[in-house]
Amino acid sequence: SLYPEDGNDSGDLIKNAHTAKHELLESCRNCYQFFEETMHEELMRRKFIEEGLITAIDNNEFEVYYQAKIEIHSQKIIGAEALLRWNHPEKGPISPVEFIPIAEKTGLIIEIGEWVLHVACMQAKEWIEKYSKDFRIAVNLSARQLERRSLATEIVEKLTSIGLGMQSLELEITESMIMQDLDRMNLNFKTFSDAGITLSLDDFGTGYSSLSYLKQLPIGHLKIDKSFIKEISDNIDDQTITAAIISMGHNLGINVIAEGVENELQYLKLKELNCDEIQGYYFGRPICSEEFTQVLKQNCSA
C-alpha cells in the first residue's frame, strides 16, 4: 500500500497492505500486489459468504436442483445430476461459482457434500421406486472430500442405510482433481469400483491429465466438456475431437456423455456421432425436485 493514496496513517497502510497480501496468496505466490480499494469489498464478501455457509444447512438455505441426463436415441430420462443451490435469506441466490471455492478452502465442503449426497440419494430412491428402476443420480465430489480415506466406505454405508442400490449412484470428479494426489485417492476409487458405484470423469478434454488415467482408474463414464459441444454442428475440429473421444470411450468400455447441449443441431450431430447420453438446456435446465418429478413422470409415461 502507498501513502497517501491508500491511507493517511500507518494503521491504515498496514491494514491495506495485509489485504493486498491476502489477495495475492489467493491467486499467486512469489508475486507482488499493490492494494486496490476493491480488495476490501472482495474480502468482506468472502468473509460474509464463509460465515453464511457455516449456518446454511441448519437454516435450510440449501436446495438440491436436478438436471436430466438423456439417452440420446430414445430421449428417455435415465438419470440426473444433483446441483447445489443456495438461497441466502438476505442476499438471495448466491452462485455456486462463488461459494463452492470458499467452501472448499475452509473445509465446509465436507459437511455440505454429505448433505447433498444424502438429499440426492433419498430423492433418487423415491424416483426409482415410482418411475424408473434404472434411474441414476450423479453427485459431484470435491478434492477435499476425496482426500479423506474413509470417504468411499462412508458413502457405501450411506447407500446401504438408505436402501439405494450401488449401481444407482454416479460420482463425478474432474481431471484436475485426480492430478492433486492420485495415490491418496486411489483407495477410494477402488472401493467405489468394487462396490459397483460408477465414477464419471467430468469436463473431459479441458484438464492437463494424462490419457493413462483412463487405463489406471476405474472410470465408467466420460463427460465431454461443453466447450467442444458449443459449435459442434458446424466446427470440423470440434466434431473430430468429439468423435475421437466417443470412439476411444466406447473402445475402452466407457459410457460417453455430452454436456452443454443447447439446441437441436448439436443434439443431431451428437446422435450421428453415436454419443450415449446428453445433458443440457435443450432438454431441460436444472430444476427443483418437485418440478423434476413431474418431468420424469411425463417422460416415463410417454
Short description:
The chain is globular, with a radius of gyration of 22 Å. It contains 12 helices and 9 strands.
N-to-C SSE series? HHEEEHHEHHEHHEHEHEHEH
Name the beta content range.
15-25%
Q: Oligomeric form of this entry?
A: single chain
Tell me the total number of β-strands.
Answer: 9
State the strand order across the main sheet. 1-2-4-5-6-7-8-9
Quickly give the CATH architecture. Answer: Alpha-Beta Barrel
Mind telling me the CATH class? Answer: Alpha Beta
Unreliable spans: none
Shape: globular
CATH fold description: TIM Barrel
Number of helices: 12
Termini separation: 65 Å
**What would the average pLDDT be, to the nearest integer?**
88
Our count of domains comes out at 1
Structure notes:
This protein has 302 residues and is α/β, with parallel strands linked by helices. It has a single domain, classed as TIM Barrel (Alpha-Beta Barrel). Helices cover 48% and strands 19% of the residues. The chain has twelve helices and nine strands. It has an eight-stranded mixed beta barrel with strand order 1-2-4-5-6-7-8-9, surrounded by four helices. β6, α9 and β7 form a beta-alpha-beta unit. The longest helix is centred in the middle third of the chain and has 22 residues. It is globular and about 60 Å long. 31% of the residues are buried.
